[in-house]
Write a structure and sequence with these properties.
The protein is α+β, with helices and mostly antiparallel strands. Among the domains are: 161 residues, Glutaredoxin, CATH 3.40.30; 64 residues, no CATH class; 104 residues, no CATH class; 63 residues. 49% of the residues lie in helices and 13% in strands. It is built from 26 helices and 23 strands. Strands 1-3-2-4-5 form a five-stranded mixed β-sheet, sandwiched between helices. A four-stranded mixed β-sheet has the order 21-20-22-23, sandwiched between helices. A hairpin with a 5-residue loop joins strand 4 and strand 5. Helix 9 packs antiparallel against helix 10 and helix 16 runs antiparallel to helix 17. 46% of the residues are buried.
Length: 643
């Protein structure tokens, strides 16, 4: 008999509806029942494309013995972290505080009925291993401890909450200085992997915001070492494994330092950000390889992860047969496919794509290459794609998440500056997103299919949507985009800016907005960038909010800027200032490609009726020219004098 999750719309929650565990969705019913029956609460947080979430479900939540213990002694609540990032963020902070390290998924939290956390873990095995007791043993220990010493557990929970929400926060401020750019680049160089690209050891995440910040600083400094780091890393990322050479699109991260063995799930936000990154790298290098990857990544999202207007959240790491089964190849089947495709030397082609008898992942091979210009490349990839067509595609979570859609639409607007067909696609998707998730002047976080959205938007949704609207304005110069960005920014300030600090959410759990780029760039950093642009483009004054927001975190930012790439970028933008390039619509169209390649990175554009060119700051213009080459010289001067 299904549990109460059967009434939910989240695919992740619905996937647990037939577990023998009596799962509840997060809400008053579950919390009241815990109080009424005086039972501890077990909160399990995950998401549909999470491999270890599937493992824990199969091992423990489908286990009748474990389910019986949970049902008799706990109120069990299942949460989709993509649907409720506010609750997830709160409990990730709880986990980090209790364990002294960052968490992950699945997240397993035990609470008293009044929501005092007393034990936390991530994946818990069904049998003792990894230095952990089994899940069944843990449940029995907690059950016994709760019955014998409930007050002690509540006391521990109170201590956790005291540390989590101190009454006074010590603020260390320091002066914001232009040296932050050189400090950031030096720190990036020190952790850069000179052999395999990327930063640090395994597991390796793409860290798109680090590279995009480096691109901006390269455009100022023309430091060839910065460009080498960017190019080498981006080239290593797309040799196969982390990047899917067959279907296109990037996986979540690489489990090894070589970018070979990924966690096979593909997230819309990663692909949106990497699409933007490769396109920006193309703009500064004019290397068509980067442009090709950007367009191929967009094609993957449009072909596999779209309903025609908007974009789904993620595709699964697992498929029928196990983790990564859809993506990997048996040596003999690959050879036969190459032979059927008319390739004269199938064994040589297999070798060129690193497809071997022993394989690179559980006896099978992940397609990748080490040499350039492989003969019959396209024919071989097509043959491998034909093999995949016979397989079951991994599950796709069709949730529409506002912030993630905004990221993808922003990338489409950027692509539209190279290929105009993408501009129209971006405009259609943006209009549909607003229609779907901005209802009666209220912005919502997510929905699925034709269900009415219920969860109101968080700071990330306001920030990323406003940023995309400004990207749309910069591309199309249609003022309605700018006007709506102002509305969203003002509502966000009213809702999330309290006592000189920004909150990520302030509903059931109030959580501070982070300066760090974790799964994707900090929503606080994106919002500050939005305010910096609006402060320049409009008559509105956001200066005090911007300064106070940056000063609040100035000590961390100036000491360790590499930890917060987009916030570091925001400091640089605040110090250098955005400028506006103004001219006629015809000039903007005729010099579109040249404008993209201008050295000054913090450049906005506006159209007027003047065939001349102007460079303007907030409220006034300070440089004028009759032709583009003259204005380019003025902007180059600005780059040199400001770095």
């Amino acid at each position: 008999m299904p549990n109460l999750l059967v009434n939910e719309t989240s695919p992740y929650l619905l996937a647990h509806a037939d577990n023998p565990v009596d799962w509840y969705p997060w809400g008053d019913d579950a919390l009241h029942l815990a109080t009424q029956e005086n039972k501890p609460i077990f909160v399990s947080i995950g998401y549909s494309s999470c491999h270890w979430c599937h493992v824990m479900e199969e091992e423990s939540f489908e286990n009748e013995t474990i389910a019986k213990i949970l049902n008799e002694n706990f109120i069990s609540i299942k949460i989709d972290r993509e649907e409720r990032p506010d609750i997830d963020k709160y409990f990730q902070e709880v986990y980090s505080l209790m364990n002294g390290r960052g968490g992950g998924w699945p997240t397993s939290i035990f609470l008293t009925p009044d929501l005092k956390p007393f034990y936390s873990a991530t994946y818990i095995p069904p049998t003792p291993k990894y230095g952990m007791m089994s899940f069944e043993e843990l449940l029995n220990v907690i059950t016994k401890r709760y019955k014998q010493d409930e007050s002690l557990l509540k006391e521990k929970g109170n201590e956790v909450l005291e540390f989590l929400n101190p009454r006074k926060r010590k603020i260390e401020a320091t002066r914001l200085e232009l040296g932050i750019e050189s400090k950031f680049t030096e720190q990036a160089k020190s952790i850069y992997d000179k052999i395999f690209g990327g930063f640090g050891d395994s597991p390796k995440f793409p860290q798109a915001s680090t590279y995009m910040t480096l691109i901006d600083f390269y455009r100022f400094s023309k430091d060839g070492n910065i460009l080498s780091i960017i190019k080498h890393s981006l080239e290593c990322m797309v040799r196969g494994g982390f990047y899917d050479l067959v279907d296109g699109g990037f996986c979540r991260y690489s489990t090894d330092e070589r970018w070979l063995v990924p966690h096979f799930e593909k997230m819309t936000y990663d692909n949106a950000l990497l699409c933007e990154l490769y396109l920006k790298t193309y703009i500064v290098t004019s290397d068509n390889r980067y442009k090709s990857i950007a367009f191929d990544t967009a094609k993957f999202i449009l072909d596999y992860m779209s309903d025609g207007e908007l974009f789904y959240s993620a595709s699964d790491a697992d498929s029928k047969g196990g983790e990564g089964e859809y993506f990997v190849y048996d040596y003999d089947e690959a050879l036969q496919a190459f032979k059927n495709a008319g390739i004269d030397d199938p064994a040589m082609t297999a070798k060129q794509f690193d497809i071997t008898k022993n394989g690179t992942f559980e006896g099978k091979s992940i397609v990748n290459y080490k040499e350039e210009n492989i003969p019959k490349y396209d024919i071989a990839i097509h043959a491998l794609k034909d093999l995949r067509l016979k397989r079951e595609y991994p599950f796709i979570d069709k949730k529409i998440i506002l912030a993630w859609n905004a990221m993808m639409i922003n990338s489409l607007f950027l692509l539209g500056q190279i290929d105009e067909s993408y501009e129209n696609r971006a405009k259609v998707s943006l209009a549909y997103l607003i229609k779907k998730l901005y209802i009666n002047n209220t912005l919502y976080h997510s929905t699925i299919n034709d269900n009415e959205p219920k969860i109101e938007a968080f700071l990330e949704d306001y920030a990323y949507l406003a940023n995309t609207l400004l990207g749309a304005y910069d591309t199309t110069h249609e003022k309605n985009y700018l006007d709506f960005a102002v509305i969203l920014a003002n509502v966000a300030i009213k809702r999330f800016y309290k006592n000189y600090e920004w909150e990520f959410a302030n509903g059931e759990f109030s959580t501070k907005a982070e300066i760090y780029d974790i799964s994707y760039p900090s929503s606080l950093a994106v919002m500050i960038d939005v305010l910096l642009k609006l402060d320049t483009l409009t008559q509105l004054d956001y200066g005090k909010i911007i300064l106070r927001s940056l000063e609040r975190h100035s000590h961390s930012l100036m000491r360790q800027p590499i930890s917060s790439p987009l916030m570091c970028s925001a400091v640089s933008k605040y110090l250098h200032k955005y400028v506006i390039l103004r001219s006629s619509k015809e000039n903007m169209k005729n010099f579109k490609n040249e404008i993209l390649k201008l050295n000054y990175p913090y450049l906005l554009t506006e159209i007027n009726d003047d065939d001349n060119w102007s460079i303007c700051g907030k409220g006034a213009c300070f440089a004028h020219a009759s032709n583009f080459n003259e204005i380019k010289v003025e902007l180059d001067k600005l780059s040199i004098t400001n770095f």
